[in-house]
Amino acid sequence: MFSLKFGGTSMGSAEAIAQTAQIIISHPEQHKSVVVSAMSGVTNLLISAAECATKTDKICYKNYLEEIKEKHITALDTLVTNKDLHTEGKEFIEKKLLGLSGFLHALTVIGEVSSRSNDEIISLGEILSAKLLSLHLKDINEKVEFISLENIVSDMFEHEHIKPDKHFFECFSHKLGKLLTPLLEENITPICTGFFGKIPDGIVNAVGRGYSDFTAALVGKACNATEIQIWTDVSGILSTDPRIVKEAHVIDELSFNEATELANLGAKVIHPQTIWPAVKNNIVVRIKNTMAPNDMGTAITKLGKNSNHSFKSITVQKDITVLTVKSSNMSESGILIDLFQAFASYDISIDLVSTSESSISVTIQNGHKNLSKLVTELEKKYNVEIVHNKSIIAIVGNEMLYNMGVAGRFFSALSNAKININMISQGANESNISAVIAGKDANNAVKVVHKEFFNTI
């Protein structure tokens, strides 16, 4: 059994959905389950509609809903020729959008969008896209069933102490197995929404945007998949961002550990939480290109394999803030615990940490809403410095364990390009090295490091 996930670009238009359908039909694995994202751009339209509603701008949010309706009806007209199926699809789209319109009207009175309300709103995009794909496949006589997961976890939060942690997701995966396995045994392909329900603090806060990757991984775990395939608009994970270095090449295979590092360090191809369900069940994760389905893509396996280079990939994270805490008593016991608890209390995630005898520097994303509150608290005990608009460039790969001098070449490449390094951090497993640099130098840094190690610019 294979778990196939198709992203927004794979569902972006009638033509893209038809291409996705052909991949599903021609897939060599007989038993497969499909998870889809919303049509590209629809989630942003839904969020914009909600913002209009909180500002009591009814005309504005209704215009967004009309745009969403037109996008899906236009696709339906192209994808579904059977009269009964077309009628079913049109009524479904209109009913769902009418329900959302009523929900948004209520928000004009409340004046704000809670995390749970946000879940209610953004879920519609995936419900509509999954329905469209299922109707198209039925139109061409495929055995499929539309599965909305929007309420599958609603009964799992009867007790307030339940949190969306790994134990919760284990239970959720078990429920998925009970729901989907009977369909697979009858050779029916489930077409599932990436959105899997309204959870405390909201699915975006708990899992993050791109959560449909995680859904596909949980489906794969639930149904004992041999492979989880993430279908997107690139032919795998690349040696760096192709928008910066056009000669970036596809990585054939990497380990679960390397993929996790890349995801956490800014690579956008796969959601970070996708990895652990695959690791637990030793399921191969493969990144594939919807527009080039014959490309092999990138396989993510337990051990991976070493490349001929000094490492596998270069990532860059932009819009970074560096916060430095200084104290003459920095070596005192408990200071690190005190600092990290302060960050946690304001829900601020730390990316990198660098320490010295008198200071600790950490990196966080620019513009966190609670940053000023955190700084005010820390300044009661410490001297605090804030520097905005930095970037993190990182090199990732298990090959660094066996190749001497990689760090020296990395820093020399930046130095020779007159790029100053403000902060250095090495991963505990020695498979990544990160450097904080000025935001304006980010793209050039990626180019010179890629040229140094991959002999191209």
Explain the layout of strands and helices.
Layout: E1 2-6, H1 14-26, E2 32-36, H2 42-54, H3 58-79, H4 83-110, H5 115-139, E3 144-147, H6 166-185, E4 189-193, H7 203-206, H8 211-222, E5 227-232, E6 253-255, H9 256-264, H10 275-281, E7 284-289, E8 298-301, E9 313-326, H11 335-345, E10 353-355, E11 359-365, H12 371-378, E12 383-396, H13 406-416, E13 423-426, E14 432-438, H14 442-454
Parallel strand pairs: 1-2, 1-5, 2-4, 3-4, 5-7, 6-8
Antiparallel strand pairs: 7-8, 9-11, 9-12, 10-11, 12-14, 13-14
Structural notes for this entry:
The chain is built from 14 helices and 14 strands. With 457 residues, the protein is of the alpha/beta class.
Keywords:
457 residues, 19% strand, VC0802-like, 6-stranded antiparallel beta sheet, alpha/beta, Carbamate kinase, 43% helix
